[in-house]
Automatic annotation (TrEMBL), chains A, B:
Residues 1-39 are annotated as: Disordered. Belongs to the class-II aminoacyl-tRNA synthetase family. Type 2 subfamily. SUPFAM superfamilies: Class II aaRS and biotin synthetases (SSF55681), Nucleic acid-binding proteins (SSF50249). The keyword Ribonucleoprotein does not apply. This is Aspartate--tRNA ligase, cytoplasmic. It is an enzyme of class 6 (ligase). The keyword Cytoplasm applies. HAMAP family: Asp_tRNA_synth_type2.
Amino acid sequence: MVEDIEKTESKKAAKKEAKKAEKAAKKAEHKAANVKENASTLDEADISVGKYGNLPLIRSDPSAPKRSFTYIKELNKSLANKVIWVRETVSKSMVKFSSNISKESIVDIEAQVAEVPSGVAGCTQTDVELVVSQIWVVSSSVPQLPLQIDDASRPEKPGDEDSLNIRVNQDTRLDNRVLDLRTPTSQAIFRLEAGVCKLFRDCLTKKGFVEIHTPKIIPAASEGGANVFTVSYFKGSAYLAQSPQLYKQMAIAADFEKVFTIGAVFRAEDSNTHRHLTEFTGLDLEMAFQYHYHEVMLLIGNLFTEIFKGLRDEYSNEISIIGQQYPAEPFTFLDPPLVLKYPEARVMLKDAGVEIGEEDDLSTPVEKLLGRLVKAKYDTDFYILDKYPLAVRPFYTMPDPQNPQSSNSYDMFMRGEEILSGAQRIHDPKFLTERAKHHAIDIEKIASYIDAFKYGCPPHAGGGIGLERVVMLYLGLDNVRKTSMFPRDPKRVTP
Amino acid sequence: MVEDIEKTESKKAAKKEAKKAEKAAKKAEHKAANVKENASTLDEADISVGKYGNLPLIRSDPSAPKRSFTYIKELNKSLANKVIWVRETVSKSMVKFSSNISKESIVDIEAQVAEVPSGVAGCTQTDVELVVSQIWVVSSSVPQLPLQIDDASRPEKPGDEDSLNIRVNQDTRLDNRVLDLRTPTSQAIFRLEAGVCKLFRDCLTKKGFVEIHTPKIIPAASEGGANVFTVSYFKGSAYLAQSPQLYKQMAIAADFEKVFTIGAVFRAEDSNTHRHLTEFTGLDLEMAFQYHYHEVMLLIGNLFTEIFKGLRDEYSNEISIIGQQYPAEPFTFLDPPLVLKYPEARVMLKDAGVEIGEEDDLSTPVEKLLGRLVKAKYDTDFYILDKYPLAVRPFYTMPDPQNPQSSNSYDMFMRGEEILSGAQRIHDPKFLTERAKHHAIDIEKIASYIDAFKYGCPPHAGGGIGLERVVMLYLGLDNVRKTSMFPRDPKRVTP
């Protein structure tokens, strides 16, 4: 088990919250006692007997009632005066009996839909209300919640001093993820995330790509063994794949021509930042091309345009819900996307007072600055940066045929943060060996990688996308843990 | 690294093949020398200079030719007399120059399409042929192949004694997967496998399911710790998830209502059979229901019907290609699918002379027998077996409300082998604790699982499907390694 050194902090917060909840619970108890008293004085005259109570545990009994339920969101005036059933989480004030029902419990309600000409305040349904005739608890919650859904749903506006005190901190949210995921924002985030995967797949499938599944358990840590998790494998050991790249490339060498895969990717990096996870969802693709890797790079650029259009058009409701809690500038993009060359970026940075050497990589703050410069000049939150210095790319990257300092590689950015890294890969085993030696990599250890290209392989390029980062940056969120349903980092492997 | 104790055997086979290949190569060398001689005598008169040769390594040079390629499968008479470019693997006999090109190399060919009224034998294109005017090697293969694509593609018919000698064994295939995947059968298998995932997702998305991603790195081995891989996780350790079940259930408790996920699943089982893998692709779903788990069970049954229909209608070409190498009876199914109750199955087995106790599980051979009985009686290769004995199911399975020996659980079968296991899960934390204690499970170790249901949770059911098994059994193949692109078993973690 992994020790969470931040736990002490969060425990203190949790204790505070627990005390608050205790007080609230005592209040509720008092209230409930009153209700009981009232109820007992009415006992002889209880005309609602058999119309409320705790349902027995639903175990799929054949004698179970046959009811057809209506979703709250489906309510409207056309249902006025009709009797319907809904299954919904109740609020304390819903009906008298419900003062005994703890928040977040699941209840079934029979009710008549009533028009409310004056409008209902503070509810998702404003023009009708329910006149409850039956209420049954299906599954009750413990009375003390570690966090209130209302608090977890509160808008976070920068500089809003008051709201600071009632914010639910990240660890409390993640420790109680089942509750935190019930907020309208969480519901919208993960529906939109599913949308990104769907758009990615649908777009590539239309272009003739084949979906593949690559192994996560691999025999050797290919790039020197840094940042790789070790797995006990029967009497030996193995590793967790840091990327599906070798396998995507093998699929290309095996004549599949265009492939994609969506799956878990593992990085044993001890980075505790807003954008690093030790396990994330990779959207990967690889494609054979005819003569120039730009055939692939531009296809990927176009893929992003399709995804952004799809999100804008099909997920506007989700985007608006999330924006109410976490306000952000709408995401902007160009069609076709902007392609900048590395030397051009260096000039833009120099003009802004930051000098980068010809063979230097961009640091994270410099990437962010470049994102702001690009946004100011071209009004786009997405762009492609092409032709990285050869020195800062992995050994399997194809060097530029004309400029020995440059390479056939690219990164793609959203709101100034990298979300894809890709390149033409070396498909010739001799040249690959030569480049690996240049990087002082033990050839023995990567023999099976090199061997994959021995039997003929078309030139190819590809890239890998971090799903959680794409969703975080598209929505302008501040932490990748908001877009990973059950995030993993060096300090967290629970729940 | 994992030792492959079967390697000695396959090494012998490989050596034999290598010797054969050596002979062939010497022959080719001799031939090539002749060609060179011929070429030198023709040197002054070589009218083809600049029309053949080795292309320089394609590194995305801006001066690269601009050509538009035609796929071999797109060739037809309408192209007759037109000059086109194709990129294709060549056969030894294609043109004179190609006798120097090793098999499986990638070449670009300029050619004129010519009608062949008499038909071309032994090729995929029978009514046109190419009159080659230019040929360029893009990427050359080493001359000695560890297996011949022709051998790897040879039909396997039961009882066919002759074909036994030229079969390529499974380990040779997997050791050289890049070549083995080039056979028409492999190409078709993995295209069909991609189809299963697509049909699964499209069908569930239409029904309102949300796709989620669940962590593979988990903090505790929930069911007692058997068959779980351990991962070194920074200064501690963690485990690889045997199923996404806990996380699917948490998503249900978190109000997502209907979820599915496709991802890697790990089993540290030391089983070396035709149907066990240590890593496979799980197609998982979980769904809240109103009153009866049959709402979910029948939805899953219907999902399979949709998948089978989709494969039959959209992948008939792939099915036919695979059937040529591995003949099998076409897969049969009923719409709606057959649902058998466990007691009915016991009666069918008893009538066939096999007695199974009321609380006994079915062994693999008995499952297969039952499959044959069902097929004979109902003519279906797919069916649902409902209401398993409680004693043979995991602790979280909901017991039957009327019969304490029975449970609300089901398996689904294809050609007599289990491909899905599912059930209503206990959604009440107290009852779940009671059942775990009954199974002598350490409550402390599963506390976070039980806690997921503390804050109210709708009744729900679901199931997990093994992708590779579904494809294997749909096609009537004999080994799950044929349907896993890079299979992992206790003896294999490569390539």
